[in-house]
Amino acid sequence: MRNTPGAPVWQRNYYEHIIRTDRALNATRRYIADNPRRWHLDSKNIHRIGDDPLAREIWDMLRQHDDQHGSGHAP
Q: What is the tally of structural domains in the chain?
């Protein structure tokens, strides 16, 4: 399908996050929907023009919830 036999399928350092609340679900939906428009701020873009405050806000909110309720991360 990708014409890259033997190449990994999964993204390196990928982890899952359990979405437990409506707030987290809506924040994740917003992050996904807005992501292409924020490419100029993406840390993986070598031409980025600055930090992405929306990504930081969302990830901080999810991590805060994990700290309060146990980790939702699966390495």
A: 1
> If you write DSSP's letter for every residue of 8-51 in order, what string do you get?
-SSPTT--EE---SHHHHHHHHHHHHHGGGGGGG-TT-TT--S-
Is 24 part of any domain? yes
In terms of phi and psi (left: phi > 0; alpha: psi -120 to 50; beta: otherwise), the region of 42 is: beta
Containing structural domain, residue 37: 19-70
* Residue 75 within any structural domain of the chain: no
pLDDT in tens, the chain (75 residues): 567 777 766 666 666 778 888 988 888 898 889 888 888 988 888 998 988 888 788 778 777 766 776 654 444
**Stated pTM of the model:** 0.52
